[in-house]
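Quick one: structure tokens for this chain, please?
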Amino acid sequence: MQSLRAAFILTIFLVVTFLLIPVQWLGLKLRRSYVRTFPHAYHRFVARLFGINIKVVGKPASDQGLLILANHAGWIDIVIFSAVLPVSFIAKAEVNDWPFFGTLARLQRTVFVTRERRSQTGAARDAIRERLLQGDTLVLFPEGTSGDGNTVLPFKSALLGAAEAVLADGRHVPVQPVSTAFTHLYGIPMGRENRPFFAWYGDMDLMPHLWEALKAGPLDVVVEFHPPLSLDAMDRKELAKAAEQAVRAGQVRALAGLV
């Protein structure tokens, strides 16, 4: 029964996705305004199809230029954040070359960065800053890799220089910590051993992991927006540390059933 459910979900996902890809592609080519919000509507459908039930606590600090710093558990975060609000992502450059998923990333106007090359950090920071000044909401996963859904890894500050961008009112772009936590499976509180069914990390192969996640069943997720931070009041390293602490505390509260 679980395999039948997964096969049905995957078939619907692929059919709908291939039908909608030309819509977003054409919008990007013609520079239509809907290209910001279309992925949001699409991922709300995908979240429902996959059985991802999202509880949102708090709200975004701004809808005009916002940098979100969040913990990362793999591909599922793309669905979760995109279903909550219209966003684009900051991703490692190799994602651009992935079959199929690289295409979806480009269609969502992902900013691709090469983290390993310090010489390109400045160019990536400038690209992020430009998108923020255009009013986009960008999601950055400053852990630099994905985790198992049970803990938050240390945040890196390398790309936070983009938050030095100054808005029209003279303020720096707001930076908002956001925590995610996998809390329930089939409505039952989830234990540590079950979160790797949904967290894609380490050397896991993507497609087998996606198949197992679809077989695992409906998932409840808590997404909490924490008070925004700004480089008006701290430097990059302090901001990264403060965001890490807020996200870790939010995940702990959610996993303990306190949110």
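The beta strands are 52-57, 66-70, 88-92, 111-113, 137-140, 175-185, 188-189, 219-225.
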